[in-house]
Amino acid sequence: MKTVLLLKSSLFNGHGQSSQLANAFAAKAFPGAQLIERDLARDPVPHLDGERFSAFLSKKESRDEKQAGIVAYSDALIDELRRADAIVIGLPMYNFGLPSQLKAWIDHIARAGETFRYTANGPVGLITGKKAYIFATRGGTYAGTPADTQTPYLRDFLAFIGITDVEFVYAEGLAISDASRNAGLAAAKQKMESLVS
Ligand SMILES: Cc1cc2nc3c(=O)[nH]c(=O)nc-3n(C[C@H](O)[C@H](O)[C@H](O)COP(=O)(O)O)c2cc1C
Prior knowledge:
Layout (H helix, E strand, L loop, with lengths): L2 E6 L8 H13 L4 E6 L10 H8 L7 H19 L2 E7 L7 H10 L6 E4 L2 E4 L5 E7 L12 H11 L4 E7 L6 H19 L1
Parallel strand pairs: 1-2, 1-3, 3-6, 6-7
Antiparallel strand pairs: 4-5
Helix pairs in contact: 1-6, 2-3
The structure holds flavin mononucleotide.
Flavin mononucleotide (FMN) binds next to helix 1 and strand 3.
């Protein structure tokens, strides 16, 4: 049985357009899969700060109780990623970037020695053999332009940890007019169908 990690980051939880697309895709593409669902807006990962990052760097034997708890929490997020065969991400655009809730998750799974390691030839990703599907929803239209900072950022980050097989599905123009919203959602659904069949 396949395992799917479903990450949602819309402020509107399950009602967000990105969440609805990600939910629908996970159900269609992976029927019967074991779903690990994380709604990062409903159950936010804390922002990374100095204390948390120091805990990540600390040696196991010298950690105090608080540091051990911080590392265990990050380990659990990484374990979900390791267990997944596929990762489905709902990615709204907020203020030209990623939702901060998703960035906080990224900051907790980017751990040297766990999800990537440095070698003489540069960094090597350790989360391999997985495919990611990103459902990007925007009020305006940006895909394929320099204003779309989300696509290269997420593609680069996922490649950094070893996930190089990534599909982006865009639903754009959602805030321009009813017609453009309908067209944006229809385009996303059509692309979704092509990925499922
Ligand atoms: C706080 C906030 C900031 C937003 N910033 C942008 C933006 O910079 N560019 C854009 O095209 N749309 C922007 N939008 C519109 C969202 O991208 C759009 O509503 C999309 O559906 C969000 O995905 P969601 O429905 O899954 O939350 C913003 C919406 C909110 C609530």
